[in-house]
Amino acid sequence: MRRTKKPILTITLSAVLSLAAVVWAGEPVAGEPGLTFFGWSDQHIQTDGNGSHLIPAIEAMNGLPGPTYPDNIGGSVAEPEFVFGCGDITEWPTAAARDTYNELVTKRLKFPAYDIMGNHDEGGLAPSETMKKWILARHESLTYTFDKGGVHFIALFSGYDESLNNPAQPITKEALDFIRKDLADVPKRKPVVVAMHLCFEALTNRDELVEAFGDANVILVLGGHYHKATVNRYRGINFVQLPSPAPNSPNEFTVIRITPDRLVAIPYDYEKKEWDTDPKKTLDVEISGLKSDR
Cα–Cα distance between 113 and 134 in angstroms, integer? Predict the structure, then answer.
C-alpha cells in the first residue's frame, strides 16, 4: 500500500521572533482581555475657576498612547479606556471651579472621566453641595460601581470628618458597609479595583478596610490626598497613591495596565516626557482571574 505523506507545518523564523517579542513584551495576545487606564488626583482648581495647571497633564494624557513602557515592563501604551480622579477636584467647591473642571474633562480630555469626592470638594468648614451635585449628575451616586475590561471598579465616597483636625482619617462605616454589600454579589475570582480619596499613608483603619474585602479578588486600592505617587502593600493588598497636577506637586499621572496575569502601575512625568521608575512609586505584580466581559 502506498502511503501518503502528511503535510509538514512550517513556521518562518521571523514569525517565531515576532511571537516571542509579543510574549516577552508582556502585551496581550490578540483576543486576550486587558485594560489600560490613567489615574490622577487632587486637581485643586482654584475658586476663581483657574484650572490652567491641568492643561499640560490633559494634553500629555491625550498624546501618550503609543510610546513604549520601560524595558522591564515591555510593550507600548494602549489607548486608555478612561481617566480616574481620586478627589479634591477643587481647592474649594465654587461654581467657577466646577464649571472649569467640567469643561476640561468633557471637552478637552479625549477619554471618559470618572471622579470621586475629596475632602476639599465637600467644602471643609463651609460645607457645600456644589461638587456633590456634579458627581450625582454624572454618576447618579456619590459611591458608584462600573465594570470595564473584565474588572469591577468601586468608586468610593467616604465622608471627611473636619472635627478631627487631621488629614489622616478612617474610612467611614457607611463606606465599609457598601464595600461588603457590593462585593457579596461579585464573582469571587473577578478582579476588583477600589478607588477612594484617602491614600494608604492617611488611612487610619486599614485593617477594617482589608477585612471588608473578605475573600474578594481585590487587586488594587487607589487613593490620592497626599499629592505624590507611592506604592504600598499591606496584608496582601496593593495600594497605589495617585499624583496631583496641582502647583508644587510632581508633574505626573499614573498609567495602570491590567492583563490576565499582571498588574502594572507606573507614573509618567509629563514635564520631562519620561517614566518615573522609582521603585517606591511603581507597581508590577502577578494577578489572576481576569476574563473578558466585552
Answer: 13
* Measured distance CA(222)–CA(200) in Å, rounded: 9
Query: Per-residue pLDDT tens for 196-241?
Result: 999 999 999 999 999 999 999 999 999 999 999 999 999 999 999 9
Q: Where are the domains of the chain?
A: 32-286
| DSSP string covering 24-60 | HHTPPPTT---EEEEEE----B-TT---GGGHHHHHH
Residue 131 has a CB neighbour count (10 Å cut-off) of 26
The pLDDT tens digits of the residues spanning 79-118 come to 999 999 999 999 999 999 999 999 999 999 999 999 999 9
Q: Which long-range contacts (CB under 8 A, 24 or more apart) does 4-9 make?
A: none
CATH fold label, 32-286? Purple Acid Phosphatase; chain A, domain 2 (3.60.21)
